[in-house]
Amino acid sequence: MDLGVGSFVFSSGVVAARSYLNHRQPGLLKALRSGLAILVLGFARLFLTKSVNYQEHVSEYGLHWNFFFTLGFLPPMVTLLGFLRKRMPFVVPAFAIIIGYQFALNQGLQDWILNAPRTDVISANKEGICSFMGYLSIFMFGLQCGEILFQKSLSEPAKQKKMLIIGYISSLAFVGSSYLWTWLQPEFGISRRMANLPYVLC
C-alpha cells in the first residue's frame, strides 16, 4: 500500500510531463480543470464513507481528507510553481521542498501531526494536508523523469548528456538530504502518513 501510493503519484508525474512538453506551460485554469474531476471523486468518497459510517483510519489522511484530494491538488500546485521550470529543472525544487518539509517536521511539525488534538478543519486533516508536501515532491520528480523520456526534440547524445547532468544533481541532493535527515533525526524512520524525506527517497 505504502509503495503503491508513492509509485502512483510518481507515475502520474511522468505522464503529466507530456503536457509541459507539448504546451510549454499548462495554464492554471487547465490545471484546475484536470484536478477538478479527481476532487469530485474525493468529495464523493467522503460523502459515501460518512453516510454509511464506514470505518476509517483517521490517522492516515485525517477526518475528511483522502488520497483523491492529494491527487487533485497536485496539478494546480505544480502550475503555480511552473515559473521555476524556466530557471531550473524540476528536480531542484523537488529536493528543496522535501528538505524544507523534513526540516519543519524536525522543528515541531512532526509532533503536531502525531499528537495535536483535532480542534478545527486544519488539525482534523493534518496528516493529509502536511503529507501533501511530500507527494508534491514525488510528483515533481516524476515530471523531471517524464520530461527526459518524452522530449523528442533532443538528439540521443543531448538527451544522454541532460540525463547525466540531472543524475549528478540528483545524486548530490540525495546524498546531502540523506545526511541531513540522519543528522537531524536518526531515530525516526519511513512514514507514509507524513510522506517524510525517508519515504520520498525510498
From TrEMBL:
TM segment ranges: 28-48, 63-83, 90-109, 129-150, 162-184
Entry's localization field: Membrane
Gene Ontology biological process terms, A to Z: GPI anchor biosynthetic process; protein localization to plasma membrane
Main location group: membrane
An example Gene Ontology CC term for this record: endoplasmic reticulum
InterPro entries named in the record: PIGW/GWT1 (IPR009447)
Keyword Membrane: yes
Topology within the bilayer: Multi-pass membrane protein
Pfam families in alphabetical order: GWT1
GO molecular function: glucosaminyl-phosphatidylinositol O-acyltransferase activity
Keyword Transmembrane helix recorded: yes
Pathway assigned to this chain's UniProt record: Glycolipid biosynthesis; glycosylphosphatidylinositol-anchor biosynthesis
Keywords (A to Z) from UniProt: GPI-anchor biosynthesis, Membrane, Transmembrane, Transmembrane helix
Membership in a protein family: Belongs to the PIGW family.
Cited PANTHER family: PHOSPHATIDYLINOSITOL-GLYCAN BIOSYNTHESIS CLASS W PROTEIN
Name of protein: GPI-anchored wall transfer protein 1
Gene: GWT1
